[in-house]
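Co-fold these.
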Amino acid sequence: MADIELYLVRHGLAGERGTYANDDDRPLTDEGKKKTKQVAKQLHQFGLQFDLMLTSPLVRARQTADILMDVGLAEQLEEFEALGHGGELQTWLEWFDTWKSTGKTLALVGHEPDLTTWTERLVWGKAEEKLILKKAGVIGLLLPTEVSPVANSQLFWLSPPRFLIS
Amino acid sequence: MADIELYLVRHGLAGERGTYANDDDRPLTDEGKKKTKQVAKQLHQFGLQFDLMLTSPLVRARQTADILMDVGLAEQLEEFEALGHGGELQTWLEWFDTWKSTGKTLALVGHEPDLTTWTERLVWGKAEEKLILKKAGVIGLLLPTEVSPVANSQLFWLSPPRFLIS
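Predicted complex below.
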Protein backbone atom coordinates (compact mmCIF):
# COMPACT_ATOMS: atom_id res chain seq x y z
CA MET A 1 0.00 0.00 0.00
CA ALA A 2 1.39 3.42 -0.92
CA ASP A 3 2.26 6.10 1.61
CA ILE A 4 -0.38 8.53 2.82
CA GLU A 5 0.21 12.26 2.28
CA LEU A 6 -0.61 14.12 5.48
CA TYR A 7 -0.88 17.92 5.49
CA LEU A 8 -1.01 19.86 8.75
CA VAL A 9 -2.24 23.45 8.69
CA ARG A 10 -2.02 25.83 11.63
CA HIS A 11 -5.00 28.18 12.14
CA GLY A 12 -4.61 31.77 10.96
CA LEU A 13 -4.04 34.88 13.04
CA ALA A 14 -6.69 35.12 15.78
CA GLY A 15 -7.88 37.70 18.30
CA GLU A 16 -5.75 38.29 21.38
CA ARG A 17 -5.84 35.90 24.30
CA GLY A 18 -7.99 37.25 27.16
CA THR A 19 -10.41 39.14 24.93
CA TYR A 20 -12.93 36.29 25.05
CA ALA A 21 -14.43 34.69 28.16
CA ASN A 22 -13.80 31.27 26.65
CA ASP A 23 -10.47 31.04 24.83
CA ASP A 24 -11.96 28.41 22.51
CA ASP A 25 -14.18 31.12 21.02
CA ARG A 26 -11.42 33.43 19.78
CA PRO A 27 -12.08 33.99 16.07
CA LEU A 28 -9.68 34.85 13.25
CA THR A 29 -8.96 38.56 12.83
CA ASP A 30 -9.76 40.24 9.50
CA GLU A 31 -6.07 40.05 8.64
CA GLY A 32 -6.01 36.40 9.71
CA LYS A 33 -8.96 35.63 7.42
CA LYS A 34 -7.37 37.47 4.50
CA LYS A 35 -4.00 35.75 4.77
CA THR A 36 -5.61 32.33 5.32
CA LYS A 37 -7.67 32.84 2.14
CA GLN A 38 -4.51 33.69 0.21
CA VAL A 39 -2.81 30.56 1.51
CA ALA A 40 -5.90 28.46 0.70
CA LYS A 41 -5.98 29.74 -2.90
CA GLN A 42 -2.28 29.03 -3.31
CA LEU A 43 -2.62 25.46 -2.01
CA HIS A 44 -5.48 24.93 -4.45
CA GLN A 45 -3.36 26.36 -7.28
CA PHE A 46 -0.62 23.86 -6.42
CA GLY A 47 -3.19 21.18 -7.25
CA LEU A 48 -3.66 19.93 -3.70
CA GLN A 49 -6.82 17.97 -3.02
CA PHE A 50 -7.50 16.19 0.27
CA ASP A 51 -9.77 13.17 0.61
CA LEU A 52 -10.66 14.34 4.09
CA MET A 53 -9.93 17.28 6.36
CA LEU A 54 -10.07 16.98 10.14
CA THR A 55 -10.21 20.15 12.21
CA SER A 56 -9.91 21.14 15.82
CA PRO A 57 -13.37 22.24 16.98
CA LEU A 58 -12.02 25.56 18.38
CA VAL A 59 -13.42 28.59 16.53
CA ARG A 60 -10.13 29.89 15.05
CA ALA A 61 -9.29 26.42 13.67
CA ARG A 62 -12.81 25.70 12.43
CA GLN A 63 -12.85 29.06 10.60
CA THR A 64 -9.49 28.21 9.03
CA ALA A 65 -10.82 24.82 7.91
CA ASP A 66 -13.95 26.47 6.47
CA ILE A 67 -11.77 28.83 4.41
CA LEU A 68 -9.79 25.85 3.09
CA MET A 69 -13.07 24.07 2.25
CA ASP A 70 -14.42 27.17 0.48
CA VAL A 71 -11.71 26.98 -2.20
CA GLY A 72 -12.46 23.28 -2.71
CA LEU A 73 -9.36 21.77 -1.07
CA ALA A 74 -11.13 18.78 0.48
CA GLU A 75 -14.02 16.48 -0.26
CA GLN A 76 -15.17 16.38 3.31
CA LEU A 77 -14.63 18.14 6.66
CA GLU A 78 -15.02 16.65 10.14
CA GLU A 79 -14.31 18.02 13.59
CA PHE A 80 -11.81 15.94 15.55
CA GLU A 81 -11.71 16.57 19.29
CA ALA A 82 -8.06 15.54 19.83
CA LEU A 83 -6.89 18.35 17.50
CA GLY A 84 -7.99 20.92 20.09
CA HIS A 85 -6.68 21.46 23.62
CA GLY A 86 -3.34 19.64 23.43
CA GLY A 87 -4.94 16.38 22.35
CA GLU A 88 -3.07 13.10 22.33
CA LEU A 89 -1.35 11.89 19.18
CA GLN A 90 -2.26 8.37 20.31
CA THR A 91 -5.98 9.12 19.89
CA TRP A 92 -5.38 10.24 16.34
CA LEU A 93 -3.09 7.27 15.59
CA GLU A 94 -5.90 4.87 16.53
CA TRP A 95 -8.30 6.75 14.25
CA PHE A 96 -5.65 6.82 11.45
CA ASP A 97 -5.16 3.07 11.66
CA THR A 98 -8.78 2.50 10.68
CA TRP A 99 -8.94 5.38 8.16
CA LYS A 100 -5.72 4.70 6.18
CA SER A 101 -7.24 2.08 3.89
CA THR A 102 -9.95 4.51 2.74
CA GLY A 103 -7.93 7.48 1.38
CA LYS A 104 -4.58 8.76 0.18
CA THR A 105 -4.41 12.42 1.21
CA LEU A 106 -5.46 13.83 4.54
CA ALA A 107 -5.32 17.29 6.11
CA LEU A 108 -5.39 18.31 9.77
CA VAL A 109 -6.19 21.84 10.95
CA GLY A 110 -5.09 22.64 14.47
CA HIS A 111 -2.86 24.44 16.92
CA GLU A 112 0.66 24.86 18.16
CA PRO A 113 2.59 23.34 19.81
CA ASP A 114 0.52 20.23 19.00
CA LEU A 115 1.07 20.20 15.23
CA THR A 116 4.88 20.34 15.41
CA THR A 117 4.91 17.97 18.40
CA TRP A 118 2.87 15.43 16.41
CA THR A 119 5.11 15.99 13.37
CA GLU A 120 8.32 15.47 15.31
CA ARG A 121 6.96 12.29 16.88
CA LEU A 122 5.82 10.96 13.50
CA VAL A 123 9.16 11.74 11.87
CA TRP A 124 11.82 11.36 14.60
CA GLY A 125 9.95 9.57 17.37
CA LYS A 126 10.26 12.38 19.90
CA ALA A 127 9.43 16.07 20.14
CA GLU A 128 12.29 18.54 20.63
CA GLU A 129 10.65 21.81 19.52
CA LYS A 130 12.95 22.08 16.53
CA LEU A 131 10.29 23.00 13.97
CA ILE A 132 8.88 26.49 13.50
CA LEU A 133 5.28 26.53 12.21
CA LYS A 134 3.80 30.02 11.78
CA LYS A 135 0.06 30.78 11.85
CA ALA A 136 -1.47 29.70 8.49
CA GLY A 137 1.71 27.71 7.85
CA VAL A 138 1.75 24.21 6.38
CA ILE A 139 3.56 20.91 6.96
CA GLY A 140 3.61 17.96 4.54
CA LEU A 141 4.45 14.40 5.65
CA LEU A 142 4.60 10.97 4.05
CA LEU A 143 3.19 8.33 6.40
CA PRO A 144 3.83 4.63 5.84
CA THR A 145 0.78 2.38 6.02
CA GLU A 146 2.45 -1.02 6.59
CA VAL A 147 4.18 -0.05 9.84
CA SER A 148 3.42 2.45 12.61
CA PRO A 149 3.91 5.99 11.28
CA VAL A 150 5.62 6.99 14.57
CA ALA A 151 9.35 7.55 13.87
CA ASN A 152 8.76 6.17 10.36
CA SER A 153 7.35 9.18 8.51
CA GLN A 154 9.18 11.63 6.25
CA LEU A 155 8.96 15.41 6.00
CA PHE A 156 8.69 16.86 2.49
CA TRP A 157 7.23 20.31 3.20
CA LEU A 158 7.26 22.96 5.90
CA SER A 159 6.33 26.50 4.99
CA PRO A 160 5.39 29.75 6.66
CA PRO A 161 2.69 31.75 4.83
CA ARG A 162 5.24 34.31 3.65
CA PHE A 163 6.76 31.67 1.36
CA LEU A 164 3.32 30.66 0.05
CA ILE A 165 1.87 34.04 -0.86
CA SER A 166 3.75 35.69 -3.68
CA MET B 1 24.03 37.98 18.77
CA ALA B 2 20.98 37.09 16.67
CA ASP B 3 20.49 33.79 14.87
CA ILE B 4 21.87 33.30 11.38
CA GLU B 5 19.42 32.38 8.61
CA LEU B 6 20.89 29.54 6.57
CA TYR B 7 19.30 28.54 3.25
CA LEU B 8 20.29 25.28 1.52
CA VAL B 9 19.45 24.86 -2.15
CA ARG B 10 19.82 21.60 -4.05
CA HIS B 11 21.08 21.84 -7.65
CA GLY B 12 18.50 21.60 -10.43
CA LEU B 13 17.81 18.68 -12.74
CA ALA B 14 21.05 17.56 -14.43
CA GLY B 15 22.06 15.22 -17.27
CA GLU B 16 22.00 11.50 -16.58
CA ARG B 17 24.77 9.81 -14.69
CA GLY B 18 27.22 8.03 -17.02
CA THR B 19 26.78 10.46 -19.90
CA TYR B 20 29.94 12.38 -18.91
CA ALA B 21 33.46 10.94 -18.45
CA ASN B 22 33.75 12.91 -15.21
CA ASP B 23 30.54 12.97 -13.19
CA ASP B 24 31.52 16.37 -11.78
CA ASP B 25 31.01 17.83 -15.24
CA ARG B 26 27.32 16.90 -15.64
CA PRO B 27 25.49 20.16 -16.46
CA LEU B 28 21.86 21.14 -15.82
CA THR B 29 19.42 20.07 -18.52
CA ASP B 30 17.36 22.72 -20.33
CA GLU B 31 14.40 21.79 -18.14
CA GLY B 32 16.64 21.93 -15.07
CA LYS B 33 17.80 25.43 -16.02
CA LYS B 34 14.24 26.60 -16.66
CA LYS B 35 12.84 25.32 -13.36
CA THR B 36 15.85 26.60 -11.40
CA LYS B 37 15.30 30.07 -12.92
CA GLN B 38 11.64 29.97 -11.88
CA VAL B 39 12.61 29.02 -8.33
CA ALA B 40 15.29 31.74 -8.27
CA LYS B 41 12.78 34.41 -9.35
CA GLN B 42 10.31 33.25 -6.73
CA LEU B 43 12.92 33.38 -3.94
CA HIS B 44 13.80 36.90 -5.04
CA GLN B 45 10.12 37.86 -5.05
CA PHE B 46 9.84 36.60 -1.46
CA GLY B 47 12.41 39.27 -0.63
CA LEU B 48 15.27 36.91 0.13
CA GLN B 49 18.76 38.38 0.01
CA PHE B 50 21.86 36.47 1.09
CA ASP B 51 25.01 38.13 2.37
CA LEU B 52 27.00 35.28 0.88
CA MET B 53 26.39 32.18 -1.21
CA LEU B 54 28.69 29.17 -1.07
CA THR B 55 28.46 26.59 -3.81
CA SER B 56 29.77 23.12 -4.50
CA PRO B 57 32.31 23.42 -7.34
CA LEU B 58 30.60 20.66 -9.38
CA VAL B 59 29.16 21.97 -12.66
CA ARG B 60 25.47 21.29 -11.93
CA ALA B 61 25.72 23.09 -8.56
CA ARG B 62 27.82 25.96 -9.87
CA GLN B 63 25.29 26.51 -12.69
CA THR B 64 22.48 26.52 -10.12
CA ALA B 65 24.36 29.08 -8.01
CA ASP B 66 24.99 31.24 -11.09
CA ILE B 67 21.25 31.26 -11.84
CA LEU B 68 20.51 32.33 -8.25
CA MET B 69 23.16 35.07 -8.55
CA ASP B 70 21.70 36.26 -11.87
CA VAL B 71 18.43 37.29 -10.20
CA GLY B 72 20.38 39.16 -7.51
CA LEU B 73 19.83 36.81 -4.56
CA ALA B 74 23.30 37.21 -3.05
CA GLU B 75 25.97 39.86 -2.71
CA GLN B 76 28.78 37.42 -3.30
CA LEU B 77 29.42 33.85 -4.51
CA GLU B 78 32.28 31.56 -3.51
CA GLU B 79 33.05 27.94 -4.30
CA PHE B 80 33.35 25.75 -1.20
CA GLU B 81 35.07 22.43 -1.71
CA ALA B 82 33.29 20.57 1.13
CA LEU B 83 29.89 21.15 -0.53
CA GLY B 84 30.87 18.71 -3.31
CA HIS B 85 31.68 15.00 -3.06
CA GLY B 86 30.09 14.17 0.27
CA GLY B 87 32.12 16.78 2.13
CA GLU B 88 32.33 16.91 5.90
CA LEU B 89 29.96 19.10 7.89
CA GLN B 90 32.86 19.63 10.33
CA THR B 91 34.86 21.46 7.65
CA TRP B 92 31.96 23.81 7.08
CA LEU B 93 31.34 24.27 10.82
CA GLU B 94 34.92 25.48 11.29
CA TRP B 95 34.45 27.94 8.42
CA PHE B 96 31.06 29.04 9.84
CA ASP B 97 32.57 29.76 13.24
CA THR B 98 34.82 32.41 11.74
CA TRP B 99 32.21 33.73 9.27
CA LYS B 100 29.21 34.10 11.61
CA SER B 101 30.21 37.50 12.99
CA THR B 102 30.34 39.00 9.50
CA GLY B 103 26.82 38.28 8.12
CA LYS B 104 23.23 37.40 8.90
CA THR B 105 21.97 35.36 5.93
CA LEU B 106 23.89 32.65 4.14
CA ALA B 107 23.03 30.25 1.32
CA LEU B 108 24.63 26.92 0.39
CA VAL B 109 24.18 25.25 -3.00
CA GLY B 110 24.98 21.57 -3.11
CA HIS B 111 23.94 17.96 -3.40
CA GLU B 112 21.98 15.18 -1.84
CA PRO B 113 22.25 13.35 0.47
CA ASP B 114 24.69 15.90 1.94
CA LEU B 115 22.25 18.80 2.32
CA THR B 116 19.63 16.85 4.29
CA THR B 117 22.36 15.03 6.26
CA TRP B 118 23.86 18.38 7.28
CA THR B 119 20.38 19.73 8.07
CA GLU B 120 19.45 16.77 10.26
CA ARG B 121 22.73 17.03 12.15
CA LEU B 122 22.29 20.77 12.66
CA VAL B 123 18.70 20.36 13.87
CA TRP B 124 18.53 16.95 15.59
CA GLY B 125 22.21 16.05 16.06
CA LYS B 126 22.07 12.97 13.84
CA ALA B 127 21.04 12.05 10.31
CA GLU B 128 18.17 9.60 9.80
CA GLU B 129 17.19 10.31 6.19
CA LYS B 130 13.83 11.67 7.25
CA LEU B 131 13.85 14.79 5.05
CA ILE B 132 12.96 14.80 1.37
CA LEU B 133 14.73 17.53 -0.64
CA LYS B 134 13.91 17.53 -4.35
CA LYS B 135 16.20 18.98 -7.03
CA ALA B 136 15.93 22.81 -6.95
CA GLY B 137 14.28 22.47 -3.53
CA VAL B 138 15.06 24.72 -0.58
CA ILE B 139 15.66 24.36 3.17
CA GLY B 140 15.65 27.23 5.69
CA LEU B 141 17.33 26.96 9.11
CA LEU B 142 17.94 29.25 12.07
CA LEU B 143 21.43 28.70 13.49
CA PRO B 144 22.39 29.99 16.93
CA THR B 145 25.66 31.91 17.13
CA GLU B 146 26.39 31.66 20.86
CA VAL B 147 26.54 27.86 20.97
CA SER B 148 27.40 25.14 18.44
CA PRO B 149 24.69 24.96 15.78
CA VAL B 150 24.85 21.13 15.86
CA ALA B 151 21.61 19.84 17.43
CA ASN B 152 20.72 23.45 18.31
CA SER B 153 19.30 24.76 15.03
CA GLN B 154 15.65 25.09 14.02
CA LEU B 155 13.93 24.28 10.75
CA PHE B 156 11.49 26.92 9.41
CA TRP B 157 11.31 25.98 5.74
CA LEU B 158 11.55 22.93 3.50
CA SER B 159 10.05 23.07 0.06
CA PRO B 160 10.11 21.16 -3.21
CA PRO B 161 10.07 23.35 -6.35
CA ARG B 162 6.45 22.40 -7.07
CA PHE B 163 5.37 24.40 -4.00
CA LEU B 164 7.49 27.38 -5.04
CA ILE B 165 6.45 27.80 -8.65
CA SER B 166 2.83 28.80 -8.99
